[in-house]
User: Fold this.
Amino acid sequence: MIGSTTKRGARGRYLLMAIFAATLLAPAAVKAQPLTVSTTTTVVLRAGPGVEYPHVSVIHGGTPVTVYGCLSGWSWCDVSFRDARGWVAGGYLSTPYNGRTGLLPNLGARLGLPITPFRLRRLLGPLL
Assistant:
């Protein structure tokens, strides 16, 4: 009986060590924080990532907006402005970086902006 208890105890320690090692080696899951940027000109906040989507609001140039993520290539970004949420073309969004102001399509990767897929279901919710 003593031998079987020792084997189970050893297996348990190996399992704990394996879990601990996996935790150390696994990349940390870090949720990206929203980023505040500015519009470069007056833009239309749209219900989706493209000119074919309806207007939600108009945002004047130089207005701060919060970016939650962008499509691949940072062509369109999911943003909020006041009480509205929608999409703005990334080429009209800028932010300071290393002493200069740059456009999001040029800086998205350096800023760590997440790639966010557009999901119509998220927009329409229970209507679909």
